[in-house]
Amino acid sequence: MFHNNNSNIINATPLNPNTMTSEQYIESLRKMNLKVYLFGELVENPVDHPMIRPSMNSVAMTYKLAEMEEYKDIMTATSHLTGKTVNRFCHLHRSTEDLIKKVKMQRLLGQKTGACFQRCVGMDAFNALYSTTYEIDQKHNTQYHERFVEYMKFVQENDLTVDGAMTDPKGDRGLSPSQQTDPDMYVHIVEERADGIVVRGAKAHQTGAVNSHEHLIMPTIAMKEADRNYAVAFAIPSDAEGVFMIYGRQSCDTRKMEEGADIDLGNAEFGGHEALVIFEDVFVPWDRVFLCKEYEFAGMMVERFAGYHRQSYGGCKVGVGDVLIGASALAADYNGAAKASHIKDKLIEMTHLNETLYSCGLACSCEGKATQAGNYEIDLLLANVCKQNITRFPYEISRLAEDIAGGVMVTMPSEADYRSEKVGPYIDKYLKGVNSVKTEDRMRVLRLIENITLGTAAVGYRTESMHGAGSPQAQRIMIARQSNIEEKKGFARNLARIKPQEEEK
Ligand code: SF4
Ligand code: FE
To answer: What is the three-state SS of 150-209?
Structure first.
């Protein structure tokens, strides 16, 4: 154990000696000295902050489900490093079956939280670093893989949540890291010492940063020799000296600060978050450095992490999609429109789109293969096709949900009005749908649809579908690279009876 503040993490007895209960997870964060800024102020107690806690509850669900017998197979796995049972979020995939279970686990969590549960970024980073460090060592005779294996044992044994951090602020997108006017636009090494390195920079829109015990930093683009100081991967505790986080705003976020706004929240218990994480001359000891200037491997690390995370979206977004489809069907039931053929057809279309996304998540997993290091990676072409569809279908699913919900989803009065003696009875009377359903329940389901399509969860469902795990163009570049057009030309030539040399003349 090399992080003092984490040394008391395991202080009760979970079902499994290697896993924390959800309560232990929350308590473990309470013991950390996290520096989180929100609305310009340092948050004294992030764990109990009403805007932060729902996102923490989503991560806690990854611990809670792992404790439940019925989900054991999907939520836990056997570590090949220790032979012990670990939470699947800390697992290095050993087969295509593991890759499939990962996607199923993410769909399950999307269904249970209706939000981004954040812990996948760490899992995807573990798997990308495990294989890449192995290949760096093969070429450079370095010890990164061995160090990383030790780090993984630490993570698995303590059941940690780790923020896999890739995206740098990037400044002028037309310039490489070393060409930027401000050298800090990409995380870089500012000093190399006998005992470690000192790094500076920032990582933008970091999913679950505030709810993570650790940050695992990777480069964000392929690099050339001039960028070698930017080719760096390392792990640090979230409360390491020089690290602080600035919490990202979300649409309708301050509703979480209001008293008596349970209905207005739509999903009062769960949420997600992103943060800007700053590294102000942070010292990293050598045993936590996993890439240091071997710039030609930056691209491999990026490609692998992005590939895994593009697979992930074929699980998590599908689970949240399930919630949205269910909420839309309830909204139709509650206003008496459920039997209309166009409503039924819209629900079919939403289901078709959602299951297509799931098919992509499963397909890239089924076609996965072993890396040189022995862990499994997904089929990169299919994972990129998966994410490309994710940049589109959740928008259409949201459009159909809004269509079914009707305008009342965004014009409805607040819970405070509903509870008011004076106007409450009028809301109760005029927002009523079918007789058998309480007005309050109709309001609740409409607010849930609002939350997923336009509110705080829209960050994780809608806009993150566009930009998370890379914006659409990043997938198109990968699809182009993997599409093997020459082979396809060969198929066509063959059938058209064109000899290759004839075409070349
Ligand atoms: Fe996991 Fe999805 Fe959130 Fe990424 S966006 S961390 S895959 S829930
Ligand atoms: Fe994401």
So the answer is: HHHHHHHHHCCCEEEECCCCCCCCCCCHHHCCCHHHCCEEEEECCCEEEEEEEEEEEECH
